Amino acid sequence: MEIWINPACSKCRSAIDLLDGAGAEYTVRRYLEDVPGEAEIREVLERLGLEPWDITRTQEPEAAELGLADWARSAASRDRWIAALAGHPRLIQRPIITAQDGTAVVARTEEAVRDALGR
């Protein structure tokens, strides 16, 4: 199990606390420092069952700078969104936990973290 975090994020710290409390074995990835590439983002999206715009933090200043609000949310624009996430990792929703069964969850709630633990 791996958890993508931003240490400054309270949701990330809460998820870590829950994992620790459950005695889970996991690896911490500070994704702002160890930035995932496009292929890795595609893999995580497949594991999540989501599209790139579903895990994009659209309220970040970088999203406004890129004009994400005007980008199409379609199969034709998927690569553009993935490139934006790889180029601007602050836009990636957090925390993301990749579970042992090959799935993943955006672990912003206690329920999502527990779901990942149960996989």
TrEMBL record:
InterPro entries: Arsenate_reductase (IPR006659), Arsenate_reductase-like (IPR006660), Thioredoxin-like_sf (IPR036249). Pfam families: ArsC. One of its GO terms (molecular function) is arsenate reductase (glutaredoxin) activity. Belongs to the ArsC family. Keywords: Oxidoreductase. It comes from Streptomyces fructofermentans. SUPFAM superfamilies: Thioredoxin-like (SSF52833). This is Arsenate reductase.
